[in-house]
Amino acid sequence: MTLAIIGGTGLTTLEGLEITRREVVRTPFGEPSGPVIHGVLQGREVMFLARHGYAHTIPPHQINYRANIWAMRHLGVRKLIAVAAVGGISEEMEPARLAFPDQIIDYTYGRRHTFFEQDLTDVVHIDFTYPYDQALRDVLIAAAEEADLGAVPWGTYGATQGPRLETAAEVRRLARDGCHLVGMTGMPEAALAREAGLAYATCAVVANWAAGTGGRTVTMDEIEANLVQGMGRVRTLLARVVPRL
Length: 245
Ligand SMILES: CSC[C@H]1O[C@H](OP(=O)(O)O)[C@H](O)[C@@H]1O
Ligand code: HPA
Description:
The chain is of the alpha/beta class. Helix content is 27%, strand content 25%. Bound molecules: the ligand CSC[C@H]1O[C@H](OP(=O)(O)O)[C@H](O)[C@@H]1O and hypoxanthine. Belongs to the PNP/MTAP phosphorylase family. MTAP subfamily.
């Protein structure tokens, strides 16, 4: 089963990946965020793509999610681990922690969010009751437990439009809706992966307390510092997970 990792904020390169080639993929939906990197990690072939581009220049609402997922499928990927920075809403979701969300609420708008458009296909309604692949989540959760990473094995990811961060009132609404985490890229990525038949799971990395929680505002300095720590945990996690998939 070919494995790929999509990295987000704080993960534009995959440390330890012995790169074998970079592949530019043309898709019917336009350009992916960059060339797909092929390499070997822990003795396994892995592909890597930086969601915001390798120089982190593409904001969340302008990512070509369809091209990224189509490219993965085209290259034979069957399992896709998404790494995503998030704000922590509920008290378990402390900065620098990892979490493996099990649900999503989509607050985004105006994004090209499906492969099944009238002019291309018949009307298709995918089942999305459980938006993440449970078998892939199980592997991530087990590896994080073994490595004693203190990760949270659940959570509802609220996907907001960005690129601005949320207001305090928006975060209160997200909390009332049942969101534990907030990020800007979880949708439509997860739904497109399901439409493409990929097993997809997210490793969320808490970058900050969400806006207004505990009366706080959000600074880029804290986000960067927490992501340095959190991405260290992601590397530990991937080193255990990759050989098992
Ligand atoms: C202030 S950082 C916000 C930025 O980080 C997250 O990106 P990703 O999910 O790709 O790691 C979030 O969704 C925003 O795009
Ligand atoms: O607080 C946040 N909100 C949305 N996206 C994010 N990505 C990191 N932190 C945040």
